[in-house]
Every structure is written in structure tokens, then in C-alpha cells.
Amino acid sequence: MDTWQLPVSFALLVFVSSYFKLFSNVLAGFILGIFVTNLNYYLFYQVSWQDLVVDKPVKIVATVSKSIKSGEQPYIQVKIESIDAFQVNAWKTVNANLSVKKYSMPLRQGDKIEGVAKLKIFRSRKNLHAFDSELFAFLNHIYFKGKVEIEVHKSNERDWQNDYRHFMSAVFQQYKLSWLYYTLMTGDKSKIPNIDKDNFRMLGLSHLLAISGLHIAIFFTLSFVLLKILLIPAQSFLKQDSNIYTVGILCALFSSGVYVVISGMQVSAQRAWLMALIGIICYLLGTRISFFRLILYALTIVILISPFSLLNMGLYFSFLAVSCILWFISKHSRGQEKSVRLRDKLVWLMKIQALIFVFLCPITIYAFQGVSISGLALNIVMIPLLSCVLFPAILIQSTIFHVFDVNAIVLLDTWLFEAYRWLLIFNFHWIDIVPISVSQLLAVMLIVALLCTPLTRVYSLIPLIAISLHWWLSSKPLWQINIFDVGHGSAVLVEHDDKAFLYDLGANYFGTYSMFKHVVMPYIKANNIELMHTIVSHDDGDHAGGLKDLNLLGYGNTLRTFHREEYAQPCLQKTVELGSLTIQTIWPQQMQDNNNNSSCVVIVSDSRFKLLLPGDIGTEIESHLVDQHEDYLNASFLLAPHHGSRTSSSAQFIEQVGAELAVFSRSYNTPWQLPHSDVVRRYHHFGYKTYDTALDGQVQIRVFKQHFEVYTARNAKNLWFLR
């Protein structure tokens, strides 16, 4: 909102509207959109006193909303009622993620707690192609993280939604695919193993795990059919003017609405229910409504209620999929016979699935950097199976659970589990594709939309030519440096011709969250890069924390070049070619008095531009390198030694390197106050431009033949409400 795009767009619309009155509606919608978005933000998201309660002890009153981690040091999410004198308004939700000090009592959802907390504003790492924790926190109203010492704890009975989830968990706990049935009935994905999430994405079946229009349609239809069956014995007693059909659809609408609520009010489910509501209202009023208007009204209501739902990729998948289905039906239902043969229905199903696949392919590539080719065939089988067999079966099992002690769907469960295992044997499901930008996605979607209508097909050449010219005229970097935002630590990936060299692996927190696995690997996979060599500067946890995951994910052999057949420190001094790049280690020859001074110092060069990676060396080693490599130490880019600590980055070293820019790799809330202010001033004194991963996120340096360009993740994801 504080960039040039908003005023320019507004001025352009005003200018066009003054000459073309049809654009007046667009201008009015633009103004309404700005007003609704700002109103929604100030009413439900903005916390004016947020900065006044951080970095000091505060009295907190809250309700436990989620237990993230149990054990000796629990980690919980709480909904805050008050902090010191600040009360949270009833219409706002203010959540915080807190670790609990020295507390042995179990904390459950709904429990009330009071205590003393020390809070920090929620801020996380920002990297390209990695999960955006800050955006997730914003959408889920998570404003703080920190620690709390509980003084008062009032246990509370579980609420109805939690009771329902516990019941469903008990219903299906004996089955092999219990997590699937539980998710379908509750919308809660917390019980899905990570490996199965990846498998379903690879198979193109991820949409089955998110409560969507498909699930709402099935629930609506089953409710309607069940009610009609129950009313058969009573039909002779009902008055002639009783409209069983109307009663049926109203009851089905109510029951599917309850399902939307208990499944977590997901955007796709809201869309489906709103469309059903609008359609039923029009039916009861005796008016007709086009499919296009039905979708448009539902989308308008969703966005008016929550404009930030536009940041949810599920909204786009949901509305595009239903648009494809309704467009196909409207095109093929005209002039058709009333009775349609089963074979024709199957052909329709295959055509609809192919159409959805084509339309969703660009947005799938944008979101997941790939597409499932097996999903096209599997969904033709799975959607009827889910609608006609699986969903009714799990509803029956849920209904009879407390009446009959029997596993009614054990045969179906076994068959599905074996079929699932059999599918995973094949290695052809997923194709990795180079990621596309938002502008490229919009252009591709425009091309697909224009191709749908004969009158507009010729105009699809315009965006097609624009994309081709942009790709052909845009210069490609010869090589690229990625300094990831891994908090306190370092991880640097140098890529050239789809091959890469990795320097350091970042930290591993609590033995469960590895920076290599969750930050570096998503980038490598998204860009289809082959990792050739890996150097671990030294064995401190913030540099070598990802060693275990490096080996588990099949990249252990990349250590052999510089760390021997069996990994060992220090790194070997040698020179290796990576295409036109030279990777040379110049320090140490043997282990030094401490790990930091034993850091592997690496120079990457293309004969014109040079990158210097010095690890955590101190001023003593810097002086030694200046003496030994005086003519060779100069570089274009420098990773600041030891994260900008004042024990390194001596004036002599900075002057000798003479780089154009230096990058500090460190965390935002570092207890060591890095980088030290004297060090930053020293770099600026010698003419360096500095970047900081804590402030800029991932720093990407694109090196061309005669120049280089710097891009940062925070600038690329520069959303006004996250600043």
C-alpha cells in the first residue's frame, strides 16, 4: 500500500473511467476493496499496543487453544484475554506460542491460565520456496512468542468440537487408514503422518485431505437421500401441501453447514456451502441464476467477510475447480436427453477431470513446483469411490460405533490400504517443474481462459507472445549465490548450470527441525538442482546441525570431496571445478585451538567475480590469511566472519578483501547482539554495502558476465501487513 502500484492503478482507473463509463464499476469495486480490506485489518488484525508488552515481564491471562508439544517443557498456543492493563476486544483473536517454565501439570485445550510471561513479537525466517511462517502466523492471529511461568491454572472441560474429535479418533483407531477417515470426518489434519501428506501430494490426491466442495456436496447429497428414506413410512400421513423436497434440501443444507463448522470453516468448504445456500434461496424464490453469477456471489461474500482469504491458495484451487465443473455442465447439458446412459456419465467424469487438471496445472506448478501425472487417472476412480462408497461407509461406522462393537469397514480398509501401498511402488507420479512467478502464472491462466471460447482463442496469442519475448529477452545469470535465512548459523548454496555447491547446513533445533531439511532442501527441489559438493565449515551446531538429514536424504556422498570418505574435520585443502567456477579451500591445514578458528575458508571464483566464505574465524586467523594470501584474498562478495561478532572482521581483513558487499547471517532475536555495531560501522567505513538475513531474509546474488544483482526474500514477499 505504500508502493507505487496502488496510486498508479487508482490513477489509471480514474483516467479510463472518465472516458469509458463501463470502467466506473471497476473503479467503484477497487475503492470498495481497499475500504473493506482496511476495515477488516483494523477491526480484526491490528493490535495497537503490541510493541508495549514485549521484552519485559508482563501479567498474562489466557486460554489454552492448542498443545503443540507436551513433556517436561510444554509448548502451547494460547488465546490471550489480557496482558497487564491491555484487554483484548471480544471481536479480536490474539494468539501467542509459549514455552512453559517448570510445569508438570498437563495442559489441555480450554484450560485457563494466569502467569508472568516474557513476550517477543512473532517473527520468523524468510526464504524463497520455503514455508512462510510469518504469513501463516498472520492468518492465524499469532502475534507473540515467548515464555510463561504459570501461577494459576484452572482446568476446563473440553468443548463440543474437541469432544467430537476425540470421539472420531476412537471410532477409527483400529483401522490401518485411521488418519484418513478421521481427517474426512473432522477436517483436522494433525493426525496425518508427514510421509502420507507427501504421498498424497505425489499421487495428486491432496485435495481429498482438505474439506472442500466435493466433501460438502457428498455430505449434502447423503443427508438429502437419508431424509427422504426416513420419510417414506410417513408420506401417507403428511398433508398434500407438504413439500418433502423443500424440507429435504433445507435439512441437508443445515446438516452440511454443521459439517462445515466442525471441520474448521475451511475456505473451500465455506464456498461450497454458500453456493448451495444461494442456489436454494433462488430455488425457493422461483428465480433462476446462472452458474457464473452463483460462483461470483459466493466469491464476493467470502472476500467481503474475510478479504485476507485471498492469501489462501485453497480458495483459488476451490473456485477454479468448481468453475471448470459448472462451465462444462452448462456447455454440455443443453440439448441433451433427460436420461443419460452410464457410459456417457463416465465419459463426462473423465472429461471434467481432464479439464480440472488442465486448469489447475499452472496454479499447482506455482504452489508446489511440480504436478502429479497419476492424479489425472486416480481421481477418476477416487472421486466416485469417495462419494459412493468410502464416505457412506465411514458415516455408518461412526453411527453404529456406540451401539454395536463391530468394525464395519474392516474389509474396505484393508483393500484401500493394500491399494495405497501398491500405488506407492510405482515411481512415476510426480514431475518436478521449475517454479513460475505470479506474473507468469497470471499470463498462463489468461491463455487457458481465452482458449476456452472460440471467439477469444485468437487473443490468447497476445499473452503467449509476451511470455515468450520475456523469456527470450531476459538475461540469465551465469551463476547464483543463495545465503539462506537460517537464524543463528549459516547455509550458502552456490548454483551454476543446475549444479550446486553447499557451504554449511544451518542448525537443528530440538533434534526435530533441521534448517537443511526445511529451508535448503525445498529450494534445491523447487529449482531441480543437483547438489555436487558440500563443505561443513566446522562442527559447531549452527553450522553442522543438518549433517544427519544430509545423510538421511541421500546427499552424504557430497561430503567426500572435501571431507574424505568418512566425514572428518578439518576440510581438505584442494581445488575443484564446477562448470566455469573454481572452488578452492585455503584454510586450515590442521585443526586449530578451537572450532571457530578451524573453520574451512573457501573461495568461489569465475575469474571476474569472487565469493569468500570464512566461517567463524577470528581476527588472529584473519591476520594470518592476509599475510599468506595477500594477493589472492580480495573478493567481490563476503560472508561476514562469525555472524558479525566483534571477535572477527578486523579492519585489516575488511580492507584487504575489498568486497562490494558483505552479508551477515544471523537470527533476529540473537542474545549475542549480532552483528556488533562497531563491526557494521567498520564495513561501511571501507565502502561495503551490507545485507542482513535477519532483516532481509534470504539474500540472492545473481552474477552476470559484467555485473551482479541482489534480491532479498523479504523484498520479494513485501506484504504491507507483515512489515
**Low-pLDDT regions:** none
| Main sheet: strand order | 15-16-17-18-19-20-21
Shape: globular
Biggest β-sheet strands, sense, barrel: 7 strands, mixed
Explain what this protein looks like in three dimensions.
This protein is 45% helix and 17% strand. It is α+β, with helices and mostly antiparallel strands. The protein has five domains: 5-44; 50-157, Nucleic acid-binding proteins (OB fold (Dihydrolipoamide Acetyltransferase, E2P)), CATH 2.40.50; 163-432, no CATH class; 438-469; 479-717, Metallo-beta-lactamase, Chain A. The radius of gyration is 29 Å and the shape is globular.
Which terms would index this structure?
alpha+beta, 45% helix, 23 strands, 723 residues, OB fold (Dihydrolipoamide Acetyltransferase, E2P), 5 domains
List the helices and strands and how they pair.
Blueprint: H1 5-19, H2 23-44, E1 57-69, E2 75-83, E3 86-87, E4 95-100, E5 112-121, H3 133-139, E6 142-154, H4 160-172, H5 178-186, H6 194-203, H7 213-231, H8 244-262, H9 267-285, H10 291-305, H11 313-332, H12 342-368, E7 370-372, H13 375-400, H14 410-425, E8 430-432, H15 438-451, H16 461-473, E9 479-483, E10 492-496, E11 499-503, E12 508-509, E13 513-514, H17 515-526, E14 530-535, H18 541-544, H19 547-552, H20 560-563, E15 575-578, E16 581-587, E17 601-605, E18 610-613, H21 619-628, E19 637-639, H22 651-657, E20 661-664, H23 677-685, E21 689-692, H24 693-696, E22 699-703, E23 708-712, H25 713-716
Parallel strand pairs: 4-6, 11-14, 18-19, 19-20, 20-21
Antiparallel strand pairs: 1-2, 1-5, 2-3, 2-4, 5-6, 7-8, 9-10, 9-22, 10-11, 12-13, 15-16, 16-17, 17-18, 22-23
Helix pairs in contact: 1-2, 4-5, 7-8, 7-9, 7-13, 8-9, 9-10, 10-11, 11-12, 12-13, 12-15, 15-16
